[in-house]
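Let us begin with a simple case.
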Amino acid sequence: QVQLVESGGGLVQAGGSLRLSCAASGRSFSTYTMGWFRQAPGKEREFVGHISWSSGITYYANSMKGRFTISRDNAKNTMYLQMNRLEPEATAVYYCAADRLSRYGVTSRSGYADWGQGTQVTVSS
């Protein structure tokens, strides 16, 4: 089990940048795959990318490559999502999630068992 709390959302101008944080706690999360998803109004929850907590190896949705970067700080038990060149279409609630099976390349919502409450990102034009 892992507890996840997102923070860092807010209002951003188009073309700007924002860094989201996901604070993790609980048992064995250091062996998990940790992911980011987003959900825009009226749309399905969408995979952004994930990171292996132990190795730092990342995996991204094709549409996110070059725009979003995932990292983690082991000392702070925190995962980050750096978002650059933001567009209004990126407006969504952003969630962090944990895959207890520590898999690589899993993009479906059902592949992640533990979720945070989300943080709102709004990109204005």
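The second case is a distinct protein. As before, the sequence precedes its structure tokens.
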Amino acid sequence: QVQLVESGGGLVQAGGSLKLSCAASGSIFSINAMGWFRQAPAKEREFVGAIIWSAGRIYRSDSVKGRFTISRDNAKNTLYLQMNSLKPEDTAVYYCAAATLTPNPTPKAREYDYWGQGTQVTVSS
């Protein structure tokens, strides 16, 4: 079992920045990948980006490439999402997720097995 605890969401104006954190605990050695998804009202959960943990390989959605940066702190078992140049379209609940099997570079949410509680990110115009 894996537990994921998120923090860092909030309200920010367009063009601003925000950094999300996700701390993993439990059976962390079973994790193959950790990533971020987001879900806006009445929309499907959308992939943002992920890290293949053992290799450090990063996959990122084209919609956020160039603005968002995914990183990790191995000592803290923590995943980060640095969000810059935020747009109102980025407004969503952001979820941290972990996969025990190798996910696709552009995965569906069902490919991930564990989820954080979600943190609201609201970007005002």
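The mean pLDDT is 95. The first strand starts at residue 2 and ends at 7.
Keep these points in mind for the review questions at the end of the chapter.
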